[in-house]
């Protein structure tokens, strides 16, 4: 193999296996908050993914935790209506809900797209920008106990732009072999556990299980 270069297309466990690291058990609540003082507010769950598994996980979370508030970003209003009024209403609802418990902020479940690829890309960018702005404004008004971002692009945008994370420590998995917890070490989200939850991983109960571990109740 000497002199050869390899490109790996792999899942998250690859690095651990490649370097011979032992399998780590999922983090417990005590481990998650061992080095930080948990906020007394609820946690923020941000859902942008539209895959079927995510929708089922979202439904299961609402079923298991019926007291969890839900604030929906109406994509049609963001694209064609009064964007500022829509985002302000979502932010106000989320901030109010965080005072007493967890809140789910999700984009409307009807996927809006166009026959024109460029137009579809523009829609995706505008929706992503709306999600990011909601997270920014909620973080500034009422820093949550934790943040979960559901969806590959959503979790990347929320980390980089919504929470302005530049440096973080990967603390470990929230579920066996999947769903990483990051601990931001600087910026406005410092000390707030951030969970990267791709859209098409886990089973129907996985999102609910992660929220149960992190929630204060």
Automatic annotation (TrEMBL):
Residue ranges of the Four-carbon acid sugar kinase nucleotide binding domain?
44-207
- Please name the SUPFAM superfamilies in this protein's record: YgbK-like
Among Gene3D superfamilies, the record links this protein to: Four-carbon acid sugar kinase, nucleotide binding domain
What InterPro entries does the database record attribute to this sequence?
A: NBD_C, NBD_C_sf
> Which protein is depicted?
Four-carbon acid sugar kinase nucleotide binding domain-containing protein
The organism that produces this protein has a lineage beginning with: Bacteria, Bacillati, Actinomycetota, Actinomycetes, Micrococcales
